């Protein structure tokens, strides 16, 4: 096992000094860096086509209502309007969904959430399209909105499939087991929005064969193509999805309900149609993190070792299922955290409500339970009079231990090492060590509080996530590597959403073939599927497919030389741009060897299979796990309840560092997203109606809110079943950060802090605390 120690300034220099300058392990710049800095990166909002029409979507102003009538005549008669479509104009499947097809393309009898699409318009000018959409007359009969997920169980069905999406009862060990110390807690997690940098945009172009091409920033193009084809009533080969520049993604980047009207309008008008969502439409349409209610009871012995965990987890799915079943599985499976628990009994439910839709957001399921079980660990530490870090160390999970699902942890699980690393890292200096005028008070550089009301707290969070899909998901990916004219091209439908896959693919080919000039072909659905960009899967399965294809090309390149030299290809190596024999007698540059040759190979990568959780929540549901420990230091104004995160010390289990600076950036970004979830990000709604669906009402953390992030240790213990041994990097710090910040606020104030994001009232210290 190797560890990468990063300097105290967190700049990664401690690890870069011994790293190669190219290939795997090098800090190779991102493939799109130059285009983005020069402003030439082709974002979906920049698309254009001859004869372009503009689209607009009419969305419901209500959270729950019956549609009595839809009158489109006024819109259709407006000058410049080319088409108006409703549910009656959907030629194929009327419902869609990436996991469960329960969501209408257009609402026609009932609207189930604020912002649900009802109709769409294509016109020759964007203002005309918006005016026409507003001119569509819809008669509603308002219905009572079910917004409390606890009330969903007894409410009338909101959907033909009922209100319950999934129930998972986990049973592990002896239900009669008890501990000497018992603590209980009730926790609430808010609705975090992925808040992509650029709102959804796309262009649909009709094809001569009656099909359509959709240009958009999809993160899962083949799934989007298949559901679009079903709704359009077309064979999948007549629908092509082309991935344009993705302006960052921390979830399912595109709302399918956005793409479908676009394609339908292009097919109806026979013209290219463009749709660029407003920020409000983006907030209303795409999926958010599941708001979750969690009840916990922890049992421990007098030494602080966990005996039993009991939990109830209720996830608010919003109006439709989306990824709720998968999110619930992660929440239930990780409900006890990265700790050894001999007995566990967990009930998990995901239910429909009339709230905004929930779905895949980084660390779904895992983040919600992490905030709760770490709150419980703080309560246990206080009840036992044990240091919080020490209590966690006494219960730390390790390789070979069992999860409450009965699955053995076969991958590296250096939980104790991670926790010790952050615990032993030097604490930042106290404010009293600097002049008072230089203090950065909670609330910003010009904080309104008084220095005497500021208290410092130190807390811990330890989190875990699963990598790849779970419960039997087929995680296959296909890649082709071509070498022509001394340059290599990678063809793989893995979308680079900012996680750096395109850069990694270049590094892999450089490493295997010794070729410097490597590019990745644009992604579209004419290529074989590679699956969604989530759970670090492209580093694993798509990177693995690229590696296998590159090695096949390597064999094609070396075989004639090996045959001529009378040796096997294993006795030839490619290093520093040269091909040499084991004895040094033969040496040839790669450039000379590939001159005039055209070589190519296609390969697949498919991890070992998993299985669904059974009726007792048992099963080998996950391919691999990743872990992270964070120590948070916060300053809290105990009179105003404002919080400033001073420093986050991070130690992470990464398997292998493939690109040091890119990895550091991913961790810092994940931590910052976690700070937002901890303190500011909550898409609020009243009676199901979203309040302030914009970037002024939804408070994202800015550079002033970003704390000092100290990456104190990256543990490189390779997972032997993963290509390169690497693990997912960005989700686990998102999962862990809110729990660590909440723990530090508890330490500063003496308050329980049982709600994420943390409200100011929860950060006001109790008297004499």
TrEMBL record:
InterPro entries: Ald_Oxase/Xan_DH_a/b, Ald_Oxase/Xan_DH_a/b_sf, Ald_Oxase/xanthine_DH-like, AldOxase/xan_DH_MoCoBD1, AldOxase/xan_DH_MoCoBD2, AldOxase/xan_DH_Mopterin-bd_sf. Transmembrane segments: none annotated. Pfam families: Ald_Xan_dh_C, MoCoBD_1, MoCoBD_2. Residues 1-33 are annotated as: Disordered. Residues 38-144 form the Aldehyde oxidase/xanthine dehydrogenase a/b hammerhead domain. PANTHER family: XANTHINE DEHYDROGENASE, XANTHINE DEHYDROGENASE SUBUNIT D-RELATED. This is Xanthine dehydrogenase family protein molybdopterin-binding subunit.
């Amino acid at each position: 096992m190797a560890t990468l120690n990063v300097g105290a300034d967190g700049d990664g220099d401690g690890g870069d000094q011994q790293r190669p300058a190219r290939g795997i392990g090098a800090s190779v710049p991102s493939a799109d860096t130059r285009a983005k800095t020069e402003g030439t990166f082709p974002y979906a909002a920049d698309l254009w086509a001859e004869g372009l029409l503009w689209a607009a979507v009419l969305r419901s102003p209500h959270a729950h209502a019956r549609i009595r009538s839809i009158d489109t005549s006024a819109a259709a008669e407006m000058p410049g309007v080319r088409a108006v479509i409703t549910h009656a104009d959907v030629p194929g499947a009327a419902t869609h969904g990436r996991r469960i097809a329960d969501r209408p393309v257009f609402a026609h009898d009932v609207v189930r959430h604020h912002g649900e699409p009802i109709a769409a318009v294509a016109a020759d000018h964007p203002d005309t399209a918006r005016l026409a959409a507003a001119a569509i007359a819809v008669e509603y009969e308002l219905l009572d909105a079910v917004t409390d997920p606890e009330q969903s169980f007894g409410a009338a069905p909101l959907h033909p499939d009922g209100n319950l999406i999934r129930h998972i009862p986990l049973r592990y060990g002896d239900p009669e087991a008890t501990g000497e110390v018992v603590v209980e807690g009730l926790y609430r997690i808010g609705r975090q929005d992925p808040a992509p940098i650029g709102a959804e945009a796309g262009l649909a172009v009709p094809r001569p064969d009656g099909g359509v091409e959709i240009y958009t920033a999809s993160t899962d193009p083949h799934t989007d193509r298949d559901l679009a084809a079903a709704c359009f009533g077309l064979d999948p080969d007549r629908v092509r999805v082309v991935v344009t520049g993705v302006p960052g993604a921390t979830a399912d980047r595109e709302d399918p309900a956005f793409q479908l009207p676009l394609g339908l309008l292009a097919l109806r008008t026979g013209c290219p149609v463009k749709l660029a969502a407003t920020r409000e439409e983006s907030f209303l349409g795409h999926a958010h993190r599941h708001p979750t209610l969690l009840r916990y009871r922890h049992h421990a012995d007098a030494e602080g070792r966990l005996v039993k965990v009991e939990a109830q987890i209720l996830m608010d799915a919003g109006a439709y299922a989306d990824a709720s079943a998968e999110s619930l599985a992660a929440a239930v499976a990780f409900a006890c955290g990265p700790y050894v628990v001999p007995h566990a009994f967990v009930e998990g439910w995901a239910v429909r409500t009339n709230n905004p839709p929930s779905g895949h957001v980084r660390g779904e399921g895992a983040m919600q339970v992490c905030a709760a079980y770490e709150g419980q660990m703080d309560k246990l530490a206080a009840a036992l009079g044990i240091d919080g870090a020490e209590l966690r160390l006494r219960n730390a999970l390790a390789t070979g231990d069992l999860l409450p699902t009965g699955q053995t942890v076969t991958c590296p699980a250096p939980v104790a090492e991670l926790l010790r690393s952050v615990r032993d890292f030097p604490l930042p200096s106290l404010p009293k060590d600097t002049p008072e005028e230089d203090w950065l008070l909670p609330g910003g550089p010009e904080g309104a509080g008084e220095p005497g009301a500021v208290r410092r707290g130190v807390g811990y969070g330890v989190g875990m996530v699963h990598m790849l899909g779970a419960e039997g998901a087929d995680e296959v990916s296909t890649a082709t590597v071509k070498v022509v004219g001394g340059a290599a091209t990678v063809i793989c439908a893995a979308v680079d959403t900012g996680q750096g896959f395109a850069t990694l693919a270049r590094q892999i080919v450089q490493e295997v073939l010794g070729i410097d000039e490597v590019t990745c072909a644009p992604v579209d659905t004419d290529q074989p599927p590679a699956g969604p960009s989530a759970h670090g899967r492209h580093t694993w399965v798509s990177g693995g497919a690229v590696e296998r294809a590159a090695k096949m090309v390597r064999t094609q390149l070396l075989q004639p030389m090996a045959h001529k030299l009378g040796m096997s290809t294993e006795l030839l190596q490619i290093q520093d741009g040269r091909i040499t024999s084991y004895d040094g007698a033969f040496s040839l540059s790669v450039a000379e060897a590939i001159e005039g040759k055209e070589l190519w190979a296609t390969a697949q990568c498919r991890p070992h299979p998993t299985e669904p959780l059974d009726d007792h929540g048992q099963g080998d549901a996950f391919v691999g796990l990743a872990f992270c420990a964070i120590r948070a230091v916060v300053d809290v104004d105990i009179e105003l309840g404002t919080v400033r995160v001073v420093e986050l010390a991070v130690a992470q289990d990464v398997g292998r560092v493939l690109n040091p600076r890119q990895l550091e950036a991913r961790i810092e970004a994940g931590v910052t997203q976690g700070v937002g979830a901890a303190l500011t990000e909550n898409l609020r709604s009243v009676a199901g109606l979203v309040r302030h669906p914009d970037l002024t009402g939804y408070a994202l953390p800015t550079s002033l809110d970003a704390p000092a992030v100290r990456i104190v240790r990256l543990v490189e213990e390779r997972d032997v079943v993963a290509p390169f041994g690497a693990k997912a990097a960005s989700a686990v710090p998102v999962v862990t950060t809110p729990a660590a910040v909440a723990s530090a606020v508890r330490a500063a104030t003496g308050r329980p802090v049982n709600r994420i994001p943390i409200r100011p009232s929860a950060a006001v210290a109790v008297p004499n605390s």
